[in-house]
Amino acid sequence: MSDHETARADTLYTDAMLQILVVDDDAQTRQLIVRYLIENGFRASGARDAREMRETLANADVDLIVLDIVLPGTSGLDLCREIRQRSRLPIVILTAKGDETERIVALEIGADDYLMKPVNPRELLARIKAVLRRSGDGEPLTRGIAQRFGFGGWTLDISRRELLSPYGSVVELTSGEHNLLVAFVRHPQRVLSRERLLDLACNRISTGFDRSVDSLVSRLRRKMEQEDGQHLIKTVRGVGYMLVLAVRRL
Questions:
Q1: pLDDT tens, 203-219?
Q2: How far apart, in whole angstroms, are the C-alpha atoms of residue 128 and residue 3?
Q3: pTM for the whole thing?
Q4: Domain chopping of the chain, boundaries
Q5: Read out DSSP for 111-180?
Q6: pLDDT tens digits along 180-199
Q7: Domain 148-249 fold
Q8: Tell me, which fold does domain 6-134 have in CATH?
Q9: How many helices and strands (H and E) does the chain possess?
Q10: pLDDT, position 243
């Protein structure tokens, strides 16, 4: 297998499966993770450095990156910053470096999870699945330059983190409000419980988010209030919330 391998089994797996990119300069580690992911239902490929990672992202649909910190040339932390500046692509850091400060920095600059080597493959798989659930049930986040959705005259551009009102004005959203709206847009006209919203819209390392879901929904409603006073996000008493409008990709 080459250093820039793409491991697939087309007779067993379909194009609908999620694609994981493993960025690690250690060939044995990279190949073992790629093989394990394929055995467990993913498509997977490997890259050994920043150049190969960028090449893969430019030419393939990737749903999540497993990223080492210590790489030749550009470090994994710098690559994490680079990715996060233009994309919500989920990132799981997997590294032999166990410095607590570095772990905190990685999470602060946008990593979705942080694991130490050596890692139990089953734990890595479980963490990957959890991150994909939080990002929107594995909805691919790098397919196409923009991710724009329309609903009731509103336009949400996920890649630009921009919400436009039916009148074309930009509605400022906090990070929490944006993530919550993304969860609703990806699951329109479906009732989402508070626990489900916690999974979809929030990294589990945060605390107290479940108690603030109601507050976030209220703030989002105020910013998206209709002229007739109707709410776009409906309360389903005793269950959760639902975006009442149909959503289309733009």
A1: 433 334 445 688 889 98
A2: 23
A3: 0.52
A4: 6-134, 148-249
A5: -SEEEESS--HHHHHHHHHHHHHHTTTT--SSSSS--EEEETTEEEETTTTEEE-TTSPEEP--HHHHHH
A6: 898 898 888 999 888 778 76
A7: Arc Repressor Mutant, subunit A (1.10.10)
A8: Rossmann fold (3.40.50)
A9: 8, 14
A10: 95
